[in-house]
Amino acid sequence: YRRLHTTETRLSEFNQTEIKAMLGSYTKVLFVRDPFHRLIATFLQGMSISPSFSSFVQEVLDSGTRNGRVAWKPLVNLCQPCLIQYDYVVMFGFLRQELGHLLRRAGLLAGSLLPELTDSQVQWTYRWLSEQMFSELSAHQKKQLSHFYRLDLAAFPFSSSFLSD
């Protein structure tokens, strides 16, 4: 395909025939993460100048889905799971199990290629962080965040998310 090997070629730059041919010839994998965990990670990585998590969340809410940064935009807006039929959806927190399955399906030796992933420790840490960070938010911010990420929460099984209620 033309422009296939250029950096950051967007799918929208191809015509419909090329898009259909490409999507039909690739194994499509979507990696998803609880939206509240994505917010926490973004805040902790210093991708915001906000002094507190609450003010960072307000910055996210004020930016909206159109003007927001990729780091916190809803996944449904970024990955179009309703338009693209992904072959696999891999949930953060279950990476070792799910990546092992993907590698075996591809005919590769999963054990030798997988890094050490401690999913249970990651889940415990994010549960603790979520409790701490969620308690900093006002009831109005919690409601707004749930609305902001409502399509992600409907599309993916984030049943233990603090934003699901």
From TrEMBL:
EC number: 2.8.2.-
Signal peptide segment: none
Domain of life assignment: Eukaryota
Annotated Pfam families: Sulfotransfer_2
Gene Ontology terms describing biological process: carbohydrate biosynthetic process; dermatan sulfate proteoglycan metabolic process
GO molecular-function terms, A-Z: sulfotransferase activity
Alphabetically ordered keywords of this record: Carbohydrate metabolism, Glycoprotein, Golgi apparatus, Membrane, Signal-anchor, Transferase, Transmembrane, Transmembrane helix
Top EC category: transferase
Entry's localization field: Golgi apparatus membrane
Gene Ontology CC entries for this record: Golgi membrane
Topology in the lipid bilayer: Single-pass type II membrane protein
PANTHER family for the chain: CARBOHYDRATE SULFOTRANSFERASE
Entry similarity comment: Belongs to the sulfotransferase 2 family.
Protein name: Carbohydrate sulfotransferase
